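Class prep. Write one:
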Amino acid sequence: MTPPEAPEAPEAPEASEAPDAKDAKDAKARADGRPIEFRGLSKRYRDRWAVQDLSFTVAPGRVTGFLGPNGAGKTTTLRMLLGLTAPTSGTATVGGRPYRDLAQPLRTVGAMLDESGTHRRRTGRDHLRVQCAATGLPARRADEVLDHVGLAQAGGRRYGEYSLGMRQRLNLAQALLGDPPVLILDEPSNGLDPEGIAWMRALLRTLAAEGRTVLVSSHLISEVEQTADDLVIISQGRLVAEGSSREIAARVRGEARVRVRASRPAELAAALTSAGAVVTRPPDGDGLLIVSGLGTGAVAAAAATHGGELYELAEDAPDLEQAFLRLTQGKAEIR
């Protein structure tokens, strides 16, 4: 959710362009980076916990993907970070401060949660100019960000005429208005065509390379894997994994299985079970065995002695999507 939209206001004067001490301080803060930190963050709604004891850090200069099934607590977490929902306990801070204590929150944090504060009859350019006036930014900044997100030619059209992808671009433009060092984006690629998704991916990487802290919440597992440097996965309001996609996949690699097919499957299965493995034989598997608890080398050694002729031997290691499903107990909606 974007902050409540200010009433119509005159355009901010173009003259106030010289950076003051606060602008210089903000520029230095961007260069230094402002981490997002969650410490013991919890939120309870009557008889259920939406978020429970959530702790992690989003580092500057990196894109962090925030993943979880529907209802996992992602939106509640972001709302607490932005001061829109009060936590039951714990803290969520930007550069060590709660959002409400930031001197210029809209110039420090750019947020893209939903479109509820946008007037459908107002043009995209006018919508951004109102935000500029409310934030003390020069009106020309609206055209700058419209051009930055590829809406320069559509700025004069009414918001109600925008496609979903265009609305996403406008919401991103609003998040970028104050040139903030921290960006919080919920499903930023939603509604974009393949070309737009590639553009968004490149933009997020560029923003992070500038030293900004970029937190992206999404259900697009494959897209986040291609974009994010770090991943945070939550399920039922709790942290279940964090790290790179490789690190998270490696975490469940202990659950990796070995597929083996041999001419004497019954004898091989008995030998593997005696060695401590868990062996399953799929129906109509034509001699296929699925082995858990032993590595490929141990299975190969057993097959050489007890399996007869070996037809297939392969490790079935989980990729990020499989790891995500296992860590969230299959409660995900993958798109």
User: Anything to note?
Assistant: The chain is about 35% helix and 25% strand. The longest strand covers residues 48-58. Residues 64 and 285 are 41 Å apart (CA to CA). The mean pLDDT is 86.
